[in-house]
Amino acid sequence: MGSILKNIKGDKVIWTVVFLLTIISFLAVYSSTGTLAWKFKGGNTEYYMIKHAVILFFGLLLMYFAHLVKYTYYSRIFQIALYIAVPLLLVTLIFGLNINEARRVLQLPFNLTFQTSDLAKITLIIYLARMLTKKQENIKSFKEAFVPLLIPVLVVCGLIFPANFSTAAILFTTSMVLIFIGRVRLTYFFGMIGIGIVVLAMALTILYYMPIEQQGRFGTWKKRIVTFVDGGESVDNYQVEQSKIAIASGYPFGKGPGNSTQRNFLPHPYSDFIFAIIVEEYGIIGGFILVLLYLILFFRAVRIVTKAPGTFGSFLTIGVGFSLVFQAMINMGVAVNILPVTGQPMPLVSMGGTSIWFTSLSIGIILSVSKDLESEESLEPVTVEDDE
Q1: What SS3 state is found at 256?
Q2: 265-291: per-residue pLDDT in tens?
């Protein structure tokens, strides 16, 4: 353990944020899985506590080993990973487990599951960072720069969209942020957004007028949006109402760790609505601290970008950092009813397997970039070509 602590490099503030988020996650998940334990494990609440602790432990190990790898190596690794992620998304869309009319996960041996969109998200972000770096000399060219960036975004987001609209939207937004920062010609940038809106509107219009029994996942999106707008009765509205009750009953100082009552009524208090449980138990101060931790994470990512030794490191850090914090804010927005229910977990806090591990990998990559800033080699410009 001593040797591991000695070899921990990179931004110490980010490591501190990770440590605090991990503690919050452990306490919140343990508190919010009581109903789950009674329903599936005969009241054995320690089962989910131990399971989550193991997942967090391996996530931290993955983060540690990821930050030891020179960040330029991820450029080539995830270029290859893109050719794996796209077929996996297609396989998941066709043969994945059908959960709530959506095929998001693949069934693996030993009763394990794998959410392929988590792999696709980080893969696409790193691919865009690589391409933006390599195309900077002719970044204003439509054929040479814009098209190679556009096609992977449309393909990956298009394959995620049918089963997971919110994830596709987050990934598309992150991609647009990266492309904008990458100095792509604004005409192409806004044109891409416009085309995306038109295509989405046409697809939703067609689905809207299809028979209800053929709408599939779109029927769920439609119900959530309508419920959010008019406040009608539905399962999703029930979740939001219980979430608001949890937040209101925790004002201002909370009920104390493990004293949540709304965890017994919220369908997913350990994932989608974990923010509500945290506020209920730790009060407004607990919620504020959680928001502050994510903002600090993003601030440190931006700070790394301003000092990154090469363009690839800058694009990589801002893309990954923005994606994580944006997802966290959406999770909180759903809990306080300023956004429709999306099903997005809170990064590194909500219970999960692949979600926590890919979040850990993402943060490990950010730390890898910051680690390079601390070395003497960071005095010399480092670009994506260095790994080739």
Answers
A1: coil
A2: 888 899 889 999 999 999 999 999 999
Cα 231 to the center of its chain, rounded Å? 27
| Three-class secondary structure assignment of the chain | CHHHHHCCCCCHHHHHHHHHHHHHHHHHHHHHCHHHHHHHCCCCHHHHHHHHHHHHHHHHHHHHHHHHCCCCHHHHHHHHHHHHHHHHHHHHHHHCEEECCEEEEEEEHHHEEEEHHHHHHHHHHHHHHHHHHHCHHHCCCHHHHHHHHHHHHHHHHHHHCCCCHHHHHHHHHHHHHHHHHCCCCHHHHHHHHHHHHHHHHHHHHHHHCCCHHHCCHHHHHHHHHHHHHHCCCCHHHHHHHHHHHHHHHCCCCCCCCCCCCHHHCCCCCCCCCHHHHHHHHHHHHHHHHHHHHHHHHHHHHHHHHHHCCCHHHHHHHHHHHHHHHHHHHHHHHHHCCCCCCCCCCCCCCCCCCHHHHHHHHHHHHHHHHHHHHHCHHHHCCCCHHHHC
Are 263 and 254 a contacting pair, CB within 8 Å? no
Beta bridge partners of 106: 114
pLDDT tens track for 7-52: 788 889 999 999 999 999 999 999 998 888 888 888 788 899 999 9
Cα distance between residue 51 and residue 37, in whole Å? 12
pLDDT band at 250 (very low <50, low <70, confident <90, very high): confident
Q: Where are the domains of the chain?
A: 2-387
Q: Is the dihedral of CA 10, 14, 19, 21 positive or negative?
A: negative
Cis amide leading into 252 (omega within 30): yes
Structure tokens at 236: 């999703």
Q: What is the pTM of this model?
A: 0.88
Tokens 């030891």: give the residue.
Answer: 68
pLDDT in tens, 353-370: 889 999 999 999 999 999
Q: Sorting pLDDT into bands at 50, 70 and 90, what band is 152? A: very high
Beta bridge partners, 103, equal 98
Q: Which two tokens stand for residue 115?
A: 């959410």
Which of 68, 95, 89 is closest to 9 using CA atoms? Answer: 68
